[in-house]
Amino acid sequence: MPYIPFSAMAGLKCQSLTVHHDTRGHFVESYRSSHAPFIVQQHNVSYSGAGVLRGLHYQQRFPQAKLLRVLQGCIFDVVVDVRADSLTFGCHTSLMLYGPEYDNDEGASQPHEQLFIPAGFAHGFYVVSDGAIVEYACDRTYQPGDEQCLLWNDPALGIAWPTTEPIVSAKDQQGMTLHQLVQTGCLPYL
């Protein structure tokens, strides 16, 4: 289970996972400490319905690295580099992430992958399927009051979301543009 880079952004990696199917269901080895880029301090699972967009989130004073995968469903996943000293600052990349039910031997199969997101990236996703269960393993615990939100539809980012009218929380609708985050000193401390 080696980690492989999937974009030009330093540290961002995508790992293919093997799904073992049989008549009972499926089995996936999703974590092995010898292959992990960090020690897990917090583990989260979220459920989101169809059309939900979450993000783009990061922690400022206590930035988190994350290992993320979809347990069920399909998401359009986006990461934005908000590391002030990075050559790719302000750039974003996206990919589709699929739950293990999409990885099978029957016709058009989609790979089951997990994404490693280093500290200093804003992260968000849009649920493409009827619903999605997403799991996050983090290298630091969540710190209330430290979360920042980069506005999901900031025109300066040019993210090609697969919708123009997602279901977004009031908090995420109040996110700041990248320019506002820079001007107010709200970039992550790395």
From TrEMBL:
The keyword Membrane does not apply. The record marks Y142 as: Participates in a stacking interaction with the thymidine ring of dTDP-4-oxo-6-deoxyglucose. GO terms for molecular function: dTDP-4-dehydrorhamnose 3,5-epimerase activity. Coiled coil: none annotated. GO terms for biological process: dTDP-rhamnose biosynthetic process; polysaccharide biosynthetic process. Homodimer. This is dTDP-4-dehydrorhamnose 3,5-epimerase. The gene is rfbC.
